[in-house]
## 1
Amino acid sequence: MADPLLLDGSVAFQSFALDPRLQRSIAKLNYSNPTLVQAKVIPLALAGKDIFARARTGSGKTAAYCIPIVQKILEEKEAGNVDRGVRALILVPTRELAEQAAKFLGILLAYCGKSIHSVNIASNISEQAQKFALFPKLDLTSRHLLIDLPDIVVATPSRIIPHLNSSNLSIKSTLAYLVIDEADLVLSYGYEDDVKAVAHVIPRGIQTFLMSATLTKEVEELKSLVCRSPVFLRLEEDEESAKLAQYFVKCKEDEKFLLLYVILKLKLVKGKIIIFVNNIDRSYRVKLFLEQFAIKSCVLNSELPVNSRIHVVEEFNKGIYDVIIASDEKEIAAGDDDDMEEDEIIPKVVTEAPDEDVIERTEVAESQSKNKRKKLRKSQEYSISRGIDFQNVACVLNFDLPTSTKSYVHRIGRTARAGKAGMALSFVVPREELGKHKACSFESAKKDEKVLAKIKEDQVSKKTELKPYIFNMSQVEVFRYRLEDALRAVTRSAVREARAKEIRQEILSSEKLKRHFEDNPEDLQHLRHDKPMHTARTQNHLKHVPDYLLPKGGKIAKEIGHVSFKKSSDNRIRKARKFNKRKGKGRGKRDPLKHFK
C-alpha cells in the first residue's frame, strides 16, 4: 500500500506506521499533518539514523524527535528485548524548555499506560527529591513495582551532571537515544564542559539528535563529538519565511516610547504582541510607562520564579494576556565573540616583571572573573526569551535591538509559527541620536546600526528582506506632550520599587497560592500577572485619547470597562424629576415670574 499523501503532495502522519496509542495522542494534539522538519526527521529517525537538523524556531522540532523515540521504545518493549533503565536522555538549555518538552511527552504518553515513564529533573526541586524520581517505586505491602525506572529523562546539562557523578543515574548500559535540543543555546549558555562530560559517559553507537535554529562553530564541534556520520538537514521553509514580514524603524531614543504608545493605544497591531527589551529594569520601565495610559501588560524576566514564568506563558497562550514585555538580558550579559572587544578576549602582555601588589590585584581580578562567569552560567537556566512555545503571536517588537543576529533569529521565531502569518518590528537608534535623551537611553543602542547591517546581510542569505517602515511622524508628534507627562512619572525609584514588589508578589504566588488555587480555581484572578504596579504617579488624563488627537478618520475601539469623565445617562427617576421641575410640575409651588405670559 502506498504512503497516504495529502493533496499538496506532503506526507500525512499515517504514513509513518506509528503505534495506535501514539496515533491517538497525535490526534489529541490536533496535528493534521507533519511540518517540514517532522516530515524529514521522523522517517530517518525511525530508520535509526543520527540526525543533525537546522530548522527555524517554532517549526516543530520537539515533536520531530519525541515521536520517533517514543515509537521505538514502544516497539522494543513489545518485543521484550530491552533492559530496564533510561533509554533516552533529552538535554535542553533552560528549565522552561525542559518543562515544555516534559509536558509534550506527557501528552504523547497519555495512552501508553505504564509502558513508558518519563521524568523531568530540571524542575526547581532539591537534588535529593530528584534522586527519588530516578528510582523505581515499590508497593511496600505487596512488593510489586508501582513505577519502573524512567525510560525518558529530560534535563538541563547542569542538572544531569550531579546525578551522573553520584551514580543516582546510570546510562552506560541502557541509553539508546541522546537528544540535544537548541544545541546552539546549550553551548552559548556555558554548558560546553557539561555536554562534553555527558559525551564521555554515554555508550558508543547510540542514536543522537542535534537540533538547532542557528549553525555555529561550536555546534559543528559538538556534532563531531556525539554523532556518527549524521544526516544533515538544513530545512529552510520558504512558505513559512514568506509569512513573516520583517520591518525596522530608525527613531530617536524617546521616540521608541512614543511609537510603542501609538502602536498599542491606536490598535495598529491586531492580536498578541511580545515586546523584547535588553534589561530587567528596562522591562519594568516600559510596563510602568504603559500603565500611565491604562495599557495592561505582563513582565517576563529571569528574576521571576520558574512557576510564575511558566504560568505567564500558559496564560498568554490561552489569550488571557495580549502584551508581554520579555527581557533578553542574558544575551547582553553573555554577548557573542564577534561583538566583544579585543581586549576582553586577549589579556594584555606584561613586558616587565610585575611586583607583588600587581600579582595580588591580578589574582583578585581573576577570582572575580571566575565568580562572575559562574554566576552568569547559573543564571542562564532562567532565560525566558528564546525557545519557549509562545502561541498565536501576531507581532514581535524589538523595543531594544538585540546585540547579535543569532538572538534576532530566536526572537522573531516567536511569531509566524505553524503556518500562521506574523510581523517583526525593530526599533533602531541612529548613531547621531545617541545620548540625547538620558532618561530613555540604553547602552546597547551604541551597536544598533552595526547589528542592523549584520541582520540585513543574514536575512539576504536566507532570501528574506528586512524592510524600513515609515511612520507619518507629523501625525505621531501630536501625542508627544502625553509622552513627556508619562516619562516624568516613571522615575528610577519607581522602577526599583516596581521590580522589588513584583518579585515579592510572584514568590508568594508561585509557592503559597499554587496549592490554594488547585482547591479554589474561582480565585484564579489573584494570580493575574498584568495587574498595575501603582508605584508611579498616575495621571488619569493619559488613559484616554481625545478625538482631536486622532489621525483623520481614525478611531479607537471602545475598551471594556471604559468610564468617561462625565456620566452618559442619569437614573430614570432622577431624570423625570429634573424634567418635571423644568416644567413646573411636581412638588412645590410654581414661580409666577418664570411662567408669566
## 2
Amino acid sequence: MTISQNLGFPRIGERRELKKATEAYWKGDLDRAGLEATGAELRRSNWAKQKSAGIDLIPSNDFSFYDQVLGLSCLIGNVPERFGWDGSNMNIDVAFDMARGTQGAIACEMTKWFDTNYHYLVPEFTQNTTFNLVGSKIFDEFAEAKAQGITTKPVMVGPATYLTLGKVTDGSGLNKFDLADSLIDVYVQIAEKLAADGAEWLQIDEPIFSLDLDDTQRAVIEKAYAKLAQVDGIKIMVANYFGQLADNMELFTSLPVAALHIDAVRGLKEAEVVAARLDDEKYLSVGIIDGRNIWKTDLERALATIETVKGEIGAERLIVGPSCSLLHSPVTLRSETKLDDEFKNWLAFAEEKLDEIVFIANAADSKIDKTMLAANKQAMADRADSARIHDAAVKRRAEAAADKDMQRGAPYADRAASQHAKLDLPAYPTTTIGSFPQTQEVRKARAAHKKGSLPDAEYDAFLEEKIAEAVKMQEDMGFDMLVHGEFERNDMVEYFGEQLAGYAFTKFGWVQSYGSRYVKPPIIFGDVSRPQAMTVKWSKYAQSLTDKPMKGMLTGPVTMVQWAFVRDDQPRSETVKQVALAIRDEVVDLEAAGLAAIQIDEAAFREGLPLRRADWDAYLEWAVECFRLASCGVADDTQIHTHMCYSEFNDIIEAIADMDADCISIETSRSQMELLDAFVQFKYPNEIGPGVYDIHSPRVPDKQEMIELLKKATEVLPAERVWVNPDCGLKTRGWAEVEPALKHMVDAARELRAKAA
C-alpha cells in the first residue's frame, strides 16, 4: 500500500495563537506554563488534523516557538558563551535570549532559510564548541503525540545542513566541518533514544542536496549516514527539498538509509530517474504537492508522475507527500469566507494539501475519488480560461520595455554631485529605513477604517497627526533625511499589492517569517498594473511639514514578487517586469510631487537567487533589469535608495552595483560589519548605509556601540559615502526602545562628524 506523509505543518495556529501567546510571554502577561500550554494545544490540534485527513506518517518536532534551527542548537547545547548559559536547565528562555538578545549580549545572526522568506538563527562555532544532548524537546513531543494515540515521525535538520548553515565566530580559522564527528555522535544518540522510545521513523532534513556541494560536505554526509544506518530499530528518511539533486544524485541515492524524499515539484524531471536508481529495499517519498505555493495541484498530472515512479519501485515502497514542509503555506482555506467562489476554487492551503496528498496516495493504489478528480480538473480549466488573469495592455507594455528605460541620464559620480548640491547633507547623514512603530493605537485605527467604523475623514486626520508627530520627532532629534513613518501601511508588500491589479488577498493567510513575525503574502494571480498613485498623498503631506528632504518609500519589484504567492502559469521574470513598470509609475509621480529621494526596497533580492550557481546569471540579469526599469525614470538629481536585509553579498556584489542605486542600506550590526567585506573587495562605487542598530532585538544599543560599528565601517569605506541608519524598518518595535536607540544613533553620527571636521 502506498504511504502518505507530511514533512511539517504550520505551527502558528489558525488565528495566530502562537504569536499572541509568545508576545504575551515576552511582555510578562503570560507565564511559561501558559505559553507551553498554548504550544501543546497547537501541537495536539495539528496532529489531530493530519490524522483525520488520513496522513500515515505525521511529523513531530516540526513545532517551534521561534525556529527549528535554533531548536536544534538548543537540543545539542550549542549556545554561545555570551548568553551565560551554565550547561544545564535548557529551556525556552535560553532560546529566546539567543534569538532576541539581552541587554548584555547581541542576538545570534539571522538570515533566510535557503530561498524562502522564512528566517533561521545562524549556528555559531568556535574552537571551544562542543555538542552534547542536553535538550529533550524532540523526545517530549514524540511522547506527547504517542499519549494521544499517534506514533509520529520525528523531524530534525540534518548534521551536514546544520554545519553548512553555521559560521565560525571567533576568528580562529577553525574549519567548521572538523566538528562533524562530535555532532554525528549526538545524532546517533538521538536516533537511538527515539528508537528506544518506540519511534519507527526519523526524518532528517538535508536540503543542502539542492546546493553545489564540495568534497568536504560530501564526506560529512557519507560519514553521518554510515553511522546513522547502524542504529537499530528505527528507519531513517533523508529529505531533500527546494530544488533538484543534479550532480548530487549519485550521493543521495546511495545513502544507506531506509527512505529518501525528493522535491518532485522543483525537481519533477528527476523523479523517475531517482526511482530507477534505488536499490530493492529503499522507500522513495515523492514530494508532488507544492509546499511553497497556494495553487491547487493538478491531480491528473501529479498522478501521472506517481504512476511512473510506481512503475519503477512498486506501491509498497512508494510514499507520497508535499515537496517540503507546509510551514510555508497558510493553515486553512476554511476561514476565507470573503474570497469569491471562483478564486477560492483555485487554491489549496496546508489543510487542503493534506487532502491532495491522501488523494494521490489512494489513487496510486487504484482507489480514485472520481468526484474530487473531476472537480479538480474543472478548477484547472476554469483558472486557465479566466478573463481576470490576462490584460493585453499590460503584456504589450512589458514587451515594449527597452534598454533606454533602464538607464539613468548620467553615471553615478555626476549624479552624486547634483544630488549633494540639491540635498545639502552633512557628513554621516542620518536616516531610517522607513517605518516607525505600529502601535496598538495605529493598528486599531487602521482596522476600524477597514471595517468602515472610522470614516475616511477621521482616519485621514489621525494619519496626519501621526505623520506630523513623526516628522517633529525626527527634526527634534536632528535627522538629516526624514521619512513619514508609514502609519497607513500594514505590510511592505501587502500595502502595495492591495492597490495593484492582478493581486488578491486573504484574511487569515498568515505564514511565519521569523519568531512572532508573521506575514500575509498576497496572491499574484494575473497581469499586474497600477490603477492609480499609491503613496504620493502621504509622502507629499509629510514633505509639506519640513524643509528637510523627505524620502519616499516603496517596495521593489523582486521583493513584491518574492514575498507573494506567485502565479505559476508564466515565468517569474515576466511577473517581476510587470510589477517593475507599476513601481516605475509611482517613482515618477513621487518625484513630480517634490520628493528628492526615493527608496525602493529590495529586501528579497539575494533571497530570490537560485540555489545553483549555474542558474545565477540568468536570474541576476533580469532582476537587475527590473530594478533599473523601476528606478530609472527620474532626473539625475533625484536620489534613489535601496535597502537589502540579511544578505550575503560577496557572490553577487557586481550585480548589486549594476542596480546603480545611489545609496544602498544593509544589515550589518549583528554581523559586526562583516557584510561590508564584499563592498570593500569589489570597491563598491556608490553610497552605503551600514546598519548600526539591530531592530530585530529589543535591546537598546548605546551611542558608543554604534560609534564603534561606524568606525569599523569607515576603516573599509570612504567616510564621505557612509550613511547612518538602522538595520531595517522599525514597525515591529516599540517607541520605548526606538526613541533612545535613534537618539543614540544620531548622537553617534554627530560625534564622528565633529571629529572629522
## 3
Amino acid sequence: MNATLSERAIILAPRGRDADIAGAILREAAIDSVTALALPQLVKELHAGAAFALVTDDALAGADLRGIAGFLQAQGEWSDFPFILLTERGGSIERNPAAGRYLELLGNVTFLERPFHPTSLISAAKAALRGRRRQYDARTRLEEIREGAQQLRVALAAGKLGAWSFDLAAMRLDASKDCKAQYGLRAEDDFTYDDLIACVHPDDRELMKSEIRRSLATGADYDVEYRCRWPDASLHWVQVRGRPQFDAAGGVLGLTGVSQDITARKTAEETLRNFAAELEQRVAERTREYADAMAQLHEAQKLETLGQLTGGVAHDFNNLLTPIVGSLDLIRQKISEERLLKLVDGALQASERARTLVARLLAFARRQNLETLPVDVAALIGGMADLIQRSVGPTIALEVKAADQLPAAMVDPHQLELALLNLAINARDAMAKGGRLQIAVDAVAVDKDAELAAGQYVRIAVSDSGGGMDAQTLARAVEPFYSTKGVGRGTGLGLSMVHGLAAQSGGRLRLMSEAGAGTTAEIWLPAAAAAALSPPPQIDRAIAVTPSLTVLLVDDEEPARSSTAAILEDMGHEVVQAGSGETALHLFRARPFDLIITDYLMPAMNGLELAAAARKVRSSIPILMITGFADIAGTGANVARLSKPFRVAELAGAVREVARAAM
C-alpha cells in the first residue's frame, strides 16, 4: 500500500464548511487529508488506503451503508479501521440512540460531539493515526509469523512427523492428522488418551507410562519408542518425543511434542532423533515468537481503543488484558494450524468489541461507590419510558405498570437506569421480529428466603415475548462473558452487571425463562425506611454552570490531563496544568488558584500527599480528587472525590459542588 495513502485521513462532511474546517485543523497537525463528496467516494478512498476516516453523522443518516459494511467485513484480521464520528448529541445511547447502531456498524469508532474544540479533534486524530500505525506493524509481524509457520508445516510434512499435545489437568490428548495416521487412524477419527493407551502393545505400556511420569516429575524431555497395534491388527513402531509445559508458578500443564512412524527406519534412530530435536526447538521458538507478537498487537489495540473510551482510566486498562493473556496461554499448548487460527480470531473479535467492553467492565468491577438513595422506582421508569422505547424500536410495544402506594427502593438511580436499559436491550435482541416488552413494579414482603433478608422489597419485573432460553442457557445467563449473541453484538456482561447491582444493593436478580415462552428478569431491591419515603432528587444530566475559576490540574498521564483540561476550558475556566505533584506545588506557591483538581495515583507524590502539602500552604483551598478506585484506603483527607471514568456533566457538577462548599 502507498505509504502516503496509508497515513492520510478521509473526510466526509457534506454539510456546510465542516469538511474545509476539519481539513484545516488536520493540516495544522501535519496530517494529510482528502475530502469525499459522498458516501460511495468515501468507500472508494477507503479501499485505496487511509489511516482513519472523519465522518459526520448526518452523512450516514438514512444512507446506504452496505459499502462501508463490506469494506469493514473484508479488512484483514490485523486491521481494525478507526473512525471519528462527529455527532450533534455525543456517543451515549441516552442522548443519541443512533450511536449504538453506528458503534455496531463501524466497530472502532470515537464519537466527538459538535461543536468541538480543535484540540479535541487533533487529539482524537493523532490517537487514531497511532493506532493505525500499530496495526501496520502488527500486519508485518503476522506476515513474518505466517511465513515461519508455513516453513514449519513444510518441515513437519517433509519429516513425516505428527504433532500432539497432552493437557494434564483435563487428561485430554490433541493430535494432528499425521500423528493419527501413525496409529492407523483417519483425520476425523477420535483419538483420546485412553485410545492411545489401548493401542500400545501390552509389553510396552508400562515403559510408556513410566516415561510420562518421569518427564512430568523431573521436567525432562519425554522420549520413548513403543509398538502400537493398528485397527487392522498390524503392528507398527512409533517414536514419540515431547517437552513439559509449565505455568508461571512452575506447575506442570502437560506435554507437547511430535511423533514419528519408525517401523521402516529402526536402523536410523540416531539420525531421526537429532532431526526431531531440531524441529522441536523450531516449534518452541516459533510459538514464542507468535505469542510475543500477538501480545504486543492486542495490548496496543486494546489500550488505544480503551484510552479513547474512558478518558483517563489508564491505570485500570491492564485488567482488560486478561482474556488476551488467557488466549495466548492456550496458544502455547496448541501447535496445529486450525487451533492457532481459531485463537487469533477470538482475540481479534475481543479487540473489535473492546470499546463497549471497557465501559461495561468498569461498571461490573464496581470501581465507583454506589450512591444509594431512596428512589421512586415508578417515577424513574416513567422518566425513562421514552428512552427505552427509542432503544427497543417501533416494532416492540412497551407497557409500564406500577402498583399503587409503592415504597421507595434503596438503590443507586444511575446504576438502576443502566440495568433497566441493559434488560430492555436484551429483550429487544430476543424479539428480532417485534413483540411486547412489559415493565411492572410492585412491593413484596419477604419472611424467609435463602437469598434475601426478611423485610419489604420493591420488585421490578422486565418481561419480553421473545424466544426465551433453554435450561442450560438460563443456568449460565449471569456468568460474566457468557453470551448467546453473535460476534460483535454483546459482551456477556449485561446480566452480570444487573446481578451485581442487585446483590450489592442488598437484593437479587431472578431470571425465569423457557424456550419459546419469553423471559422475565426480576430485580428485587430493599425498600427504604418509612421515614425516607420522600422522592429522590431529580438526576441532573445538564452541565452545571459555575463561575469562571482558576484551576490547577494535576495528572501524570498527559492524554488524560489534556482531555480534562479541554473540558474545563470549554466550561469557561482558566486551567494551569502540572504533570507531577512537585510541579503542582511549585505553581501553587507562585500564584493563587481557586481550585486544585488532581489525579490520585501518581509517581513520587500521589494526590493525597499533594492535598496535604497544599493545605499547609493554604488550608482553605478546595481540592477535587480524581481516582479510578472505589475507595482510597486510610484517606482521612477533606477532599471531594470524582470517580473515573466521568462524563462532562459529572465533572461540571463536581466542580460546582466543590466551589459552592468553599464559599
